Amino acid sequence: QVQLVESGGGLVQAGGSLRLSCAASGRTFGSYTTGWFRQAPGKEREFVAVITQSGGTSTDYADSVKGRFTISRDNAKNAVYLQMNSLKPEDTALYYCAAGRGGKDWGAPGTYAYWGQGTQVTVSS
Fold first, then answer.
1. Which DSSP string corresponds to 91-106?
2. Cβ proximity of 94 and 39 under 8 Å
3. Between the CA of residue 32 and those of 75, 85, 100, 123, what are the distances in Å?
4. In 3-state terms, what secondary structure has residue 82?
5. Cβ distance 38 to 46 under 8 Å?
6. pLDDT tens across 18-42, in order?
7. Nearest-5° angle of CA 36, CA 40, CA 43?
8. What gap in Å lies between CA 122 and CA 125, rounded to an integer?
9. What is the maximum span of the chain, computed from C-alpha positions, in angstroms?
């Protein structure tokens, strides 16, 4: 069982930066692949970034955030981070952290077994 709590969201001007954190419970968190998703009002939840479990860590990003966002993890702290730079108004959304293992399509929400409650990011123009 894994519990996830996101933090770090807020209101920022376009071009600014935010760092989201995802704090996890559970001694086996390091064995989970962790992703960030976002959902804007009236839109479907969309993939943002993913980082695989330790011992073979790799990352992947949605095209819309490549070069601007960076995902990282600190297994000693049971945490995953999303550094967001050069933010745009279209990045405004509720951002969710999710964890899973054994899946193949890490861009699909259904692959993840555990979800946090989300943290709001609002980017003003």
1. G-EEEEEEEESS-S-T
2. yes
3. 10, 26, 5, 30
4. strand
5. yes
6. 999 999 997 778 788 999 999 999 9
7. 105
8. 10
9. 41
